[in-house]
Design goal:
five-stranded antiparallel beta sheet; about 450 residues
Length: about 450
Amino acid sequence: MQRLVIHKLGPIEQCELECTQFMTFTGFQASGKSTIAKALYYFRTIKEDIVELAKAQAMYLTSSNELRDEADVCYGSNLRKALENGLREKFLRTFGSSWGMSNEMYMEYHFTETCFVQISLKSDKEYAAPNYIWITLSDDIKKFLRKKNNGLSATLLGIAEDELRRFREELDRLFEDCCSVVYIPAGRSMITLLSQQLSYIYATMDDMQKRSLDTCTKDYLERILRLKPEFSEGLQGLTAYSAGKAYLPQKLIRQALDLIKKILRGTYRYHNGEEQIILGDGKYVKINFSSSGQQECVWILNLLFYYLLQQRKILFIIEEPESHLFPESQKYITELIALVRNCGHSIVVTTHSPYVLGTLNNLLYAQSVQAQDEKRADEIISKALWLDDGSFDAWFVKDGTIENCMDTEVHMIQNERIDEISKVINQDFDELLELWNTEEESEAL
């Protein structure tokens, strides 16, 4: 099983967890939930980093000698060195400068017993830069990089698809991980609000400005810009286009579409360069004039549905899916996420919402009680949404550490964790009530 370790990074003092197919993280503001989510993104995208570097190396080797200088030759001819340099830059763009970090900071990810990557800091006495980012690759990764150095061949037309596919398959076997990663950050509404200006703004940014974006936001931004045209005929058009390409029961597609319609109060379309929410009466509203809840959730829904149809295995990392949504819609979006998980994808969710956690508990409980009456349980909550506690974990992040908050007896999230903030609110109320009763007793005397 894959395992993540974080030590003294941001608000996280110590975190060690085994990764399951559905993980949810809750806890107080600025407790470190996003740090864990970004660490998962950082490590789980290393496969794609290797692919892109190998492609760049192959294209580099086909370029004319005049386009190369000494630095390029050194960088372009050594895949391992290119990966280490790339991971250093990626660390800085994901977590910020290492200068203010503890020298004891390290994080590592174990894909298998023998395949791992570790990031640590070296003191400035040994290296020119303060807190130099040191990359440690396991022996089997180094062996793969040696074997595949200059391993892809390119022509002026690019790299053959079959060759690239075989390269990816070898990486999947090495890492025992066939998932691509889709990161959906918090604060999505601003990107959606600037929908019509987004392409122009991004196109006019120079490389330095683009590098100033954190890696997760840049990935999300570029993915949206790339996929928008796919929605030119809306979700129904996307469904029709995907029909027959891969097997997915129509019942599940209809169920997903129904949940999206309930959440969005309409359906999405990208038409004539404009993002729109199509309403039930045939009218539409431009996305930048829609509600804040619609702006926050629209691209969660689009990405979940798009990759559901594609049936490529995806690890979705979703920050605060509940943002700006009414509790009922929070329930529906959680159910959609569960449906996608049950179609073979993996999920990481950070949340502050008791409604999200409560819905997850219902889906876990439905799986548990179905032995009593499966048909009746399916009528209450569709079987397509049930969650298996064997592949589910919930974590509470607090004071720099994490605690597993699954109840081992009933196999659900501990209620006291769901109601954590309620304790504070109820305590205030109890103290006010006690004060009221004291005053009344004093007046009676």
